[in-house]
## 1
Amino acid sequence: KQEVTQIPAALSVPEGENLVLNCSFTDSAIYNLQWFRQDPGKGLTSLLLIQSSQREQTSGRLNASLDKSSGRSTLYIAASQPGDSATYLCAVIETSGSRLTFGEGTQLTVNP
Amino acid sequence: DAGVIQSPRHEVTEMGQEVTLRCKPISGHDYLFWYRQTMMRGLELLIYFNNNVPIDDSGMPEDRFSAKMPNASFSTLKIQPSEPRDSAVYFCASSLAGPYGYTFGSGTRLTVV
């Protein structure tokens, strides 16, 4: 059974800092990996999707990498801003159209 | 595209009542998922459909929960009778087959008192 772990569970940083969120998964036979953001009381917003054949994806200040062999992904946020404060969720997809298996999330607070 | 649309946004009901949650997936998507989110258990998959057919309902907690997808543009999740432990946020998501991501709705916050 696939298990997804995110470290740290919570992170508080000053504005402007670069930071890395970590995600690990137990079964490396994945199809895709998707990072989401969730604001308090809100739904999930997709940030980046990495296909199994890719090593990384970038969108603005966000960069996500994937190392299937080691079962790890990282989300790098450059020059963090208070508006980046949210919970970040990592999810793996094992086959096309199958379920997403989520980690517990990292709660990020960026202090002005 | 309006995205995945869920209704209602909030639902407060008394224990024992029937609750129906609704979802309209993105047009053209052939997969639809129902997830439940709680503080204790995080995001859990309840059931998912492919081309309106239920594929995996192993996450449905018990017989009080049922889900239907009568056509490609509509799905319901029903709880009858509801219990306080069913209080959670219920999300619907849809996707296309292939190397595409999943899109989530805004969720329905259910409170059973």
Note: Residues 27 and 73 of chain B are 7 Å apart (CA to CA).
## 2
Amino acid sequence: AQSVAQPEDQVNVAEGNPLTVKCTYSVSGNPYLFWYVQYPNRGLQFLLKYITGDNLVKGSYGFEAEFNKSQTSFHLKKPSALVSDSALYFCAVGGGADGLTFGKGTHLIIQP
Amino acid sequence: DAGVIQSPRHEVTEMGQEVTLRCKPISGHNSLFWYRQTMMRGLELLIYFNNNVPIDDSGMPEDRFSAKMPNASFSTLKIQPSEPRDSAVYFCASSLLGRDQPQHFGDGTRLSIL
């Protein structure tokens, strides 16, 4: 069965600093990896995905993610955090026999 | 372009009552998903449809839950009878066919069973 782990319940970053939200995955076969963001009282919004090709994927709102096959990781990054980036972030993995599997989510808090 | 539309946005009802949640997917999308989100259990996939056909309902908690997709533009999730432990936010999402396709979520229905 496929799975995804987000080891941090919460990440605190000062505005203007770089941010990283961690994600590791397990799936048989080639993974399809996604990041979503959820703002309060809203549904999840798609940020970016990795299917194949370049290990560095660029997405919406200045976010990017780095696929590392040897470490089975897909960490979300942004060079300079904004207060408006504060939200709940979900990593998801697909490509196995199951559908899309979501992580538990990481609360990102950007402090002014 | 309209996104996924869910109704109602909020529902408060007493236990034992029937609850029906509605979803209109994005036009042209062939896959539809129902999720439930709670603080304790996070985001759980309940059921998904491809081309209006239920593919995997293994996440449906019990027989009190049922879902239908009578056509490509409408789906319902029904709980009968409802129980307080069903209180959660229920999301509908749609996508094009294919495991590499991103899902597009509605804003959810916040359900409270008293």
Note: The two ends of chain A are 41 Å apart (CA to CA).
## 3
Amino acid sequence: GDSVTQMEGPVTLSEEAFLTINCTYTATGYPSLFWYVQYPGEGLQLLLKATKADDKGSNKGFEATYRKETTSFHLEKGSVQVSDSAVYFCALNTGNQFYFGTGTSLTVIP
Amino acid sequence: GAVVSQHPSRVICKSGTSVKIECRSLDFQATTMFWYRQFPKKSLMLMATSNEGSKATYEQGVEKDKFLINHASLTLSTLTVTSAHPEDSSFYICSARDWGNQETQYFGPGTRLLVL
């Protein structure tokens, strides 16, 4: 069935370090792909999305490219800040239902 | 962007009582809303899909008589936890799908329920 696999956390980085959070998916058809971010004690916020192969989603310095050949949608940021500390969820939408990864906790230390 | 609100944000209740949680789409119409439950340091577990004007569709293992869902209008869905018990304590999150942009779900801020 359809599913999303995310790298296990937690991830701890120093401020200004490069971030990659891996996400791969399994789906029939052509899903849309998403990254959501959850700050402590809050709900999920849409960070970025891509709706077709080779699309690049970007927001707040984060980027992810929809790679159909590798079924991946890795999240990257060139220079993380303390305020980026949160849990990041990769998700796919097949049109009827969303499937979420297990989340990756990121802590950025000054 | 699209905004979804939830009320209350936090609730403490006694075991055996019922609690109602509201989910509203503030600036768009949502024919479909979703209710999730999130356990500490875990991903979201979809509980049910709520369609305006019809009965909710519950995921396997979710008791529909315990978690009552009503979606009476295009901007409001409610989740009622009936006869709550301590094991129902959790973070409940709703989301809504924009009628005009059905690819994206917008999430509410969540409701923290603590049953004593």
Note: Chain B is about 0% helix and 60% strand.
